[in-house]
Design brief:
Helix content: 25-40%
Number of domains: 2
Order of helices and strands: HHHEEEEEEHHEHHHHHHHH
Number of helices: 13
Protein name: GIY-YIG domain-containing protein
Distance between the termini: 60 Å
Mean pLDDT: 83
Radius of gyration: 21 Å
Strand content: 15-25%
Low-confidence stretches: 145-154, 275-287
Strand order of the largest sheet: 2-1-3-4-7-5-6
Number of strands: 7
Largest sheet: 7 strands, mixed
Shape: globular
Length: 350
Amino acid sequence: MKLKYLNVQNCRALLPDSDGLPTLKRLDECLDGINNKYPGSIRSLIKTNEKSMIRCKGSRRLCVSHIKIAQGVDFQERVINTRAILEDRRAPAEFMMLQYFGNTVSQKIIVPLQYLLKGWGNAREGHQCYIHYVSHNMDKKVNLETMQWNDSDSDNYYYAGITSRDWLKRLNEHIGEIRRGSAKSFHKAWRESLGKNNVQFSSYLREINQSYEEAMDWEEKKVDSLSKDANCLNMIPGGFKGLKFLHKLRITDRVKIPLEQRERAIAKYAKQNRRKGVPNPFIAELWKDDEYYLKIIEARPKTLSREQVLLIRELNGKGWSLEKITKEIKAINQAQVKRVIEGKTYRRYH
């Protein structure tokens, strides 16, 4: 396949299988349209790739841009919809693929656009770092122009990981473990979500071409950050901190072990803690504290304040409609308000 802007090998390494649909061709055509409308915009990203190859690696090579591209792929209808989304906010250019599977389940893949362009080099070299999300109460078909890149709501669950192989191949291995009944919190959350409507599985590639030490450091910091949230699905701390954690519990006989052995150790730890039902054991006790809970919840973006939650309940009691309440308190959408009314979220707000 000959494409104008895309590195085919890197696209195949970092993006999901297209099931015979011309997804890369459509993406390349979209890039050509952007480059023609905004002369040199895509070519400049390729030049940045070429110039930065020696100086640095991974996300440090990414430059700011207004460009985001969303591609919706409906496998049942065999339809592809590719759109350029130009934002005022300047951040690294990104490509998002939203895949529909003929029901109310969808999968969202987000990859920095420069990783896919020519001039980057071999994306398979080194380690890759990623975050997987499980989101409930999602509409099946979302307008690609208005779709949020990073949904932030109390119905999201997060898992950060690293791999020395292609990240989506590692995801397929996770899926295999899910089907075999793995007790890991991440696998249990995905397995239980498969039977629900309006579920979206999202995967966000963050870093590539990292050394083992760099990837472990990234994972340690990311899990530390995510574990402030009760919806974090990592069962142990990330990176080197996690290796020490497993060794301290005598799950492993030494601290320094390869990633494959670490996965087996986590599986063993998950089986030992199956009855506890605690998705994140090392912060569970802290999360039980109401003061800590409220502090973390209100610090998260796109969440409701205590005042907004109390007002929702008050207005609902007065018979206001969902639409009217949503506009009054400036909520993200009616679903967010509905979950408060039904008692599914913000139950500790009194």
